[in-house]
């Protein structure tokens, strides 16, 4: 019996083992086929020309893009871009859904409490965009009716009346031929004398004869030289400012005008420190359009960005005042304690000291 049972048992055992091996092999093959591929790192971006721009084919370019892609090549980081709004860039880095965020991101103490930044790769400042209205003869003509110009003229008339009345007081009795008549006639003669004396025309039809009148005339002649110089400069300045079409000539004027700023931007911190409550806009384009439409007097934002828009989309309609203020430092946003931070900083510092970086600045920034 054993001779027949043993071979049969052995056959069934081998068959059982073969079936088990095939099952395990199939499971292993299925697991290999279903194993997910590793996900690429997601890098958050926000359109902010000339730092981040989208081309017609859907690709991205700009100074920040060039910098990041150099870093990614050097460190062999696989990534994909994903657009987010400004708040989303910082929130994504903070909650770990983004590997990094790049754009024109200003490094601030408040933001450093929740995320890390790389070393700065670009230093700039805030700029002020104001309306750009046509200049010329018509603008100069309108300037004659500006509040500043009219105030200067009224002040000048008041001075002429003051000296005219003063000379009339001394001359009304001793020089009745030239300053006599009724009070209005005498003061009118005094006003005429003060005007021709100030302008050095000197028709000679009116001249003081009394000692008091001549003392007044002597003082007024020298005073008029200073007065006419002051008023000439003031009038010229008033007309120039009018032709420059803006109530704003620098950051010192911002508390007295209607100001706009980008919502959730670092600019709001500066304006808050200056006790300025701005109108906020969701995009830079909307803010500059408000300047063009005279809804606000000035839009404050990072100078290179608003200069880019002023040269491209708003040429001849909006201009940016010369100079910058309140320095801004741009960096790449990373999660706190990112293992890549030191390596990214190393590549970043090497790259921004290279000739290639200077070429990119000249290409994207143009006039700075």
Structural account:
The protein has 14 helices and 13 strands. With 368 residues, the protein is an alpha/beta fold. It has 3 domains: 116 residues, D-Maltodextrin-Binding Protein, domain 2; 106 residues, Helix Hairpins; 80 residues, D-Maltodextrin-Binding Protein, domain 2 (3-Layer(aba) Sandwich). The strands form 4 sheets. Strands 7, 8, 9, 10, 11 and 12 form a 6-stranded mixed β-sheet that branches. The chain is rod-shaped and about 100 Å long. 31% of the residues are buried.
Give the helices and strands, then pairings:
Layout: H1 2-34, E1 41-45, E2 53-54, E3 60-61, H2 63-75, E4 79-83, H3 86-95, E5 100-102, H4 109-112, E6 116-117, E7 122-131, H5 137-143, H6 147-174, H7 176-179, H8 183-198, H9 211-243, E8 259-262, H10 267-273, E9 279-281, H11 284-292, E10 298-302, H12 303-311, E11 318-320, E12 325-330, E13 333-334, H13 341-352, H14 355-365
Parallel strand pairs: 1-4, 1-5, 8-9, 8-10
Antiparallel strand pairs: 2-3, 6-13, 7-10, 7-11, 7-12
Helix pairs in contact: 2-13, 5-9, 6-8, 6-9
Which residue ranges are poorly predicted, with pLDDT under 50 across at least 5 consecutive positions? 1-6, 27-38
Largest sheet: 6 strands, mixed
Rg (CA only):
39 Å
How large is the count of helical segments?
A: 14
CATH topology of the largest domain: D-Maltodextrin-Binding Protein, domain 2
